[in-house]
Specification:
alpha+beta; 2 domains; about 35% helix
Amino acid sequence: MVFDGPGNFQSWAVLVQSSLSLFPVLGLDFQALVAPTSKPTASCIGIWLTFPPGMSPYSSYPFMLHDKFPLPWNIHIISYEMWIQAIDCKKLPCYNQEACRLCQDLLLNNIVEGILQRIEMGVHANTPLAYQPIGGLIELV
């Protein structure tokens, strides 16, 4: 029997009902088939940035870049740990991962790549002061 419009809805509903009743007979759990395979984690808070030993986000991140450019992320620092979160992130729960796709894609952003490289390798002394992290400014003084 095929559902061919509102006039045949009752027949279609009976067909669906009888099909669902076969799941237990076949040893299948309908809820397990339609439910997600994992539970969501907490809401997305972005991508966690790691810092080399002895460095912290407070001294190593170039905060002034946010005044100079319209960067596509916000920053969060909690207990000396830093996350960047896409401005367009919906802050929804994530399945099987720690961050949503928008936030994960920030790691492919050339500015983020440059920031991470400078945190790891250091910032050249001739870099404009606005691009220096506070730790770099202190070293220059």
